[in-house]
């Protein structure tokens, strides 16, 4: 084995796996895998790092940095985005409008979102959430959607499938606003915390001074564990400091010179109830307490509780759901089915064969707006394996490498290790100069293949 991997006298300091014949073999393998991989049953991509949560986080980071409101993850818009993605796969098109006149607004309305403002961004073929977001932000029309002050809500679907003969990942991003209230982006850069300011100077004006918390309000149930408290004051001028208290404990303080103030706790709020108040430092001016609840944990449905029975002409779906569930939907194909929740935390739903599309997603949310998704497509697939017949050789390849990307990266990494090892040993043996030509050839090949592989980590937006 030494002659194959390690430079030594017996192989003239040229391991067999780095000679011309081996490089030709690697090239042939990569050509076959990348050209005929789909026919051999090898998926084209590794598990995508794109998730709806990542897309929403990147979107809100961009908006908040520009002084805009963060968008709320809305269950209806999520359902609409899934329905649109499923419809594109089912009818095999790549457009905002389908071949039968399907429009983004149709999916949004069918999901039960009565919008005043609405928009849609599409992407396909990307490997990372950052790649999708950067491409959208580089496009004026897509950027306008992301940075629009017209929107309050967002819903994102990330769905994998075969579109127009190619396995790909579709990302559908939908925006909406149920009211006519809008917000303009700040024209100035976001404020930056400065050095500590002097103690508050509060001038007597013969009027009652007051402070109150305006957000959140008593009774609010929130899913944002990183929320900022907001409030305002009356009859207080100059620089003042607000102390935020939980019972008698001081959580922190913030300086302000305006009527409004905003407190960043600097860490997540714990799950559960919080009773907080605000006080002007070094004074008796204090707000009423506000009692709110943080619930940022999405609901969970136990897979073991899901049961699908096939009966002539229809499916019967049964499942159990947690007590904190507030809304349950089945998105199958382009249809969104609202499921009525029973009193015993159980669901029994009858579905015709025609109702079931290629993909079936259970989407559920709690009262705080936390959303979870569960792909239950496999429960509706008939137990026929004829279409999945492949040779033992292909099964072996898939079990080891799993994807085309996996094979590509394995070959590149393998050659890189061999190349690095050869350079190191030749350098130690002081024989590096005699092998510069062959090393350059292999290194150039390796670099070209590496660039070719990573050049494919892009996609298309629409």
Summarize it.
With 462 residues, this protein is of the alpha+beta class. The protein contains ten helices and 20 strands.
Please, could you describe this protein's structure?
This protein is an alpha+beta fold and 462 residues long. It is 28% helix and 27% strand. The protein has 10 helices and 20 strands. The chain has helices at residues 2-5, 20-36, 52-65, 75-91, 104-110, 129-138, 140-146, 392-401, 404-428, 436-455, and strands at residues 72-73, 117-124, 153-163, 166-177, 210-215, 221-222, 229-234, 240-246, 249-256, 260-263, 272-280, 290-294, 307-311, 314-320, 325-332, 335-339, 346-352, 360-366, 371-375, 460-461. The strands form 5 sheets. A 5-stranded mixed sheet has the order 1-3-4-2-20, with helices on both faces. Strands 6-12-11-8-9 form a 5-stranded mixed sheet, with no helix packed on it. A 4-stranded antiparallel sheet has the order 16-15-18-19, with helices on one face. The longest helix has 25 residues, at 404-428. It is globular and about 95 Å long.
């Amino acid at each position: 084995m030494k002659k194959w991997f390690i430079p030594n006298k017996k192989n003239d300091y040229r391991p067999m796996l780095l000679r011309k014949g081996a490089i030709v073999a690697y090239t042939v393998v990569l050509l076959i895998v990348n050209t005929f991989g789909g026919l051999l049953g090898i998926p084209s991509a590794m598990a995508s790092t794109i998730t709806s949560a990542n897309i929403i986080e990147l979107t809100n980071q961009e908006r908040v940095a520009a002084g805009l409101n963060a968008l709320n993850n809305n269950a209806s818009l999520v359902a609409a985005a899934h329905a649109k993605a499923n419809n594109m796969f089912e009818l095999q098109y790549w457009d905002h409008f389908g071949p039968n006149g399907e429009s983004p607004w149709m999916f949004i309305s069918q999901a039960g979102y009565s919008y005043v403002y609405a928009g849609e961004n599409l992407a396909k073929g990307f490997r990372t959430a950052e790649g999708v977001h950067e491409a959208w932000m580089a496009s004026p029309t897509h950027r306008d959607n992301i940075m629009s002050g017209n929107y309050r809500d967002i819903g994102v679907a990330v769905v994998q499938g075969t579109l127009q003969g190619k396995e790909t990942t579709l990302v559908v991003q939908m925006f909406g606003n149920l009211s006519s209230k809008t917000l303009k982006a700040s024209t100035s850069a976001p404020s930056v915390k400065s050095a500590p300011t002097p103690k508050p100077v509060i001038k007597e004006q013969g009027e009652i001074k007051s402070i109150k918390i305006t957000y959140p309000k008593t009774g609010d149930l929130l899913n944002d564990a990183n929320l900022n408290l907001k409030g305002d004051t009356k009859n207080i001028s100059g620089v003042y400091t607000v102390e935020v208290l939980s019972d008698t404990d001081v959580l922190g303080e913030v300086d302000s010179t305006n009527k409004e103030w905003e407190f960043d706790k600097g860490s997540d709020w714990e799950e559960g109830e919080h009773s907080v108040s605000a006080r002007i430092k070094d004074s008796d001016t204090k707000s009423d307490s506000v009692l709110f609840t943080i619930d940022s944990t999405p609901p969970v449905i136990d897979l073991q509780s899901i049961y699908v029975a096939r009966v002539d002409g229809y499916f019967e779906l049964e499942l159990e759901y947690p007590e904190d569930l507030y809304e349950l939907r089945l998105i199958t194909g382009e249809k969104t089915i609202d499921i009525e929740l029973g009193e015993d935390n159980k669901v029994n739903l009858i579905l015709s064969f025609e109702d079931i599309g290629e993909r079936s997603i259970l989407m559920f949310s709690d009262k705080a707006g936390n959303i979870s998704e569960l792909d239950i497509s496999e429960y509706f697939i008939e137990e026929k394996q004829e279409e999945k017949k492949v040779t033992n050789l292909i099964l072996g390849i898939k079990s080891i490498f799993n994807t085309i990307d996996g094979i590509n990266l394995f070959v590149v990494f393998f050659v890189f290790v061999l190349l690095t090892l050869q350079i190191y040993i030749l350098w130690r043996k002081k024989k590096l100069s005699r092998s510069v030509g062959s090393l350059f050839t292999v290194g150039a090949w390796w670099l070209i293949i590496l660039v070719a592989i990573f050049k494919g980590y892009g996609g298309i937006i629409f």
